[in-house]
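Posting for a labmate who doesn't have an account.
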Amino acid sequence: MNVGSQGLQRFNLRRAVCSSLTLTLAACASEPKHAPTRILAVPQKTWPDENETLASRVRAHVAISLERGVIGLLEVAQYSSGLRRHPSTVEPWTDRQGRTRAIWGISNPNRYGALAVLTSAEGDRRHAIWLLEPRAAPRQILEGVGEPLWDHPMSPIAFSSSGRRIAFITKSDPLIRYRPLITGKLNIYDLTDTSVTAHPYRSHLPTFFDDSVVNSRPAWLDDGRRLLVAVAGPNGQASSSARDPNASIHSHAEIRLIDLENRTEESICAGHSPVASSDGKSLLLMRGNQNALYQFDLQSRQHRVINRYHGLGTVLAFLDSRYVLYVGSPNPAAPVEQTSNNSPLVGPKNMRALKIQDIWTSEVLTLLEGIDPRRSISAASML
């Protein structure tokens, strides 16, 4: 063996040792010192500065993925009873081979408690949308190209309260892989049409909607006739010259209201990520790169800033133009919990909490603690 070969062997050995040590240290750093002790648990007591009567003022339910093949439901007014399994997943939901299905996305529940969920489909890198109803067998609605976890083929799904229609955003080119969905096409399907797979119902939208709808859950303003979406950039065009396209899109996004019965659309206001109130009178929206939160009154066209008190984070539902259901920071007095089974490159994340807040009075109540931010979660009013 010559000197050059020996040197190369030593170099490869050192590189292997360094790589092994790096991965070991990363793995150690990725795990919390203690596994979380409270997972999806109702607080054992009402935390200081919280109002225990707040949940009784609204009728709403929350859907959350519990484990593979299982979805939990929480009735807000009865939150102290904890989560129960969705009737369609009392037994873990399995495929034809008997394997439990991974659920990658959950729509808001409709008024009957049904859900549209995103799963992987059979075949190479495909996804499917299924309808899960309380008293019926799961029914596949659609199937498409793109693996749910890595390819990001679609936005969260919006389910109309009547259970008739679903809406979501998809990539303009479904063959693009490993790239986040920033803007795309609006898709609307009528679930009452038995030939929906072959002949989907799509609203006749202006051309600029085809490729520039911002990736966020659309918002049904009522039972399925009107829909709110955010369009990227002035006149619906995203700025391709921006260094950060996502930031540019959010800075210039505009919310539009689509009337599916009359085939009309109108500009509402600047902003993105709309969440319609259950009473149809107002909506919550975000503006700018810092995601400032606003309430917008649809009749007066006036808006006001909503201060992010009490760890106000991701809005799940807006009830009676007053109550916000959201996932955010736990009460400061609650124990700090972190996720387990983490990526060695990312490390642990702080567990979140499900809360309800009265934006008129700033009263708040924690409903669930120990929510892994990687779980799928949604909510809606119970009508």
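Reply:
Got it, the structure tokens are right above this. Residues 31-381 form a domain with the Neuraminidase fold (CATH 2.120.10.30).
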